Amino acid sequence: MAKKVLLITGDAAESLEVLYPYQRLREEGYDVHVAGPSRKKLNFVVHDFVDGYDTFTEKPGYTWPADFAFVEVRPENYVALVLPGGRAPEYLRNNPVVQRIVRHFFAAEKPVAQICHGPLVSAAAGVLNGRRTAAYPAIAPDVRAAGATWVDGEAVVDGTLVSARGWVDHPAWMREFVQVLRAKAPA
C-alpha cells in the first residue's frame, strides 16, 4: 500500500501550486489526498504577472475535487504535508482543525512542503518560530511576525520543512522536498 501525503487547500488556491506537487508526488509513488473545508469541487485560480500591474493578476483556474473535508483527516495516517499558496491560505489559516493538523506534522517532524502564501497557515498554527522559510515576498512581514526568518530562495530546507516563493520555483522546491521525503518516508 502506497504511503500517503496530505495536501491541504481550498477555493482560490493557485492551480499550479496544487497540481504540480500532486502530480509530482504521485509520480514518486505516493498516494496524495486533497483535503478542503468540505468534500466539494474546489475552484482554483491562476496568478500571472501582467505588464503595467504592481502585483499579480488573478484568473479562474482548474477545479478539483476534495477527497476529504478537514474534519475527516487523520493526520497520523500521512507521512507528509503540502501547503500550496494562492489566496486559500488567507482563510484556511483561521480554521482550528487545519491548525491542529499542521501542528501534528511539525511536532512529529514529518516532511512539510509550503509555497507562496502557504506559510500563512503554518504561521497561524504557531509552528514557524525559530525556523527559516521562503514565501511569496509580500508575506515576508507575516513570516517574521511568526518568529521565522524569511529567505528569498527557490528551495529553502530547514530540517523537514521545504519552502519556496512561488510556482516559478517548482523544480527546485519539489526536488528538495522529494529528497527529504525519500529520506524520512520512502514510497
UniProtKB/TrEMBL annotation:
Pfam families the record matches: DJ-1_PfpI (PF01965)
Superkingdom classification of source: Bacteria
Domain DJ-1/PfpI, residue spans: 3-179
GO process terms (BP): proteolysis
InterPro entries given in the database record: C56_PfpI-like, Class_I_gatase-like, DJ-1/PfpI
Molecular function terms, GO-annotated: peptidase activity
Family as reported in the entry's similarity comment: Belongs to the peptidase C56 family.
Database matches in NCBIfam families: PfpI
Protein name: Protease
Species assigned in the record: Embleya hyalina
